[in-house]
């Protein structure tokens, strides 16, 4: 219920008029929200690490950049500063080694 309230309040603050599919329009859904979203409670340190890896690798996976370090909007850079990742972690040639699916 809390997330529903947060998303409702946020959506009301956005000016109407974003592009929506006919299906979203019929269901009165805003275009801002991802349809296949689900909540996940992090279970332990290992689960957190896997999710952090997944999030940090996404720009490479979707072809936005060839290396994780090339995505300027990522917390990856703080992880490198703290010694958690090496600066070359997540390069395109590392895809098979990451097992992020």
SSE layout and pairings?
Blueprint: H1 2-12, H2 22-26, H3 45-61, H4 76-81, H5 95-98
Please state the CA-atom Rg, rounded to the nearest Å.
17 Å
Order of helices and strands: HHHHH
The average pLDDT is 85
Terminal Cα span: 29 Å
The low-confidence parts are none
Total discrete domains: 2
State the share of residues found in helices, binned by percent.
40-55%
- Beta-strand portion reads under 5%
The major pleated sheet works out as: none
Task: List key phrases describing it.
single chain, 101 residues, mainly alpha, 2 domains, 43% helix
What does this entry look like structurally?
It is a single chain. By secondary structure, the chain is mainly α. It has 2 domains: 1-39, no CATH class; 45-98. The protein contains 5 helices and no strands. The protein is elongated, with a radius of gyration of 17 Å. The relative contact order is 0.10. The mean pLDDT is 85.
What would you say about this model in short?
The protein has helices at residues 2-12, 22-26, 45-61, 76-81, 95-98. The chain is mainly α and 101 residues long.
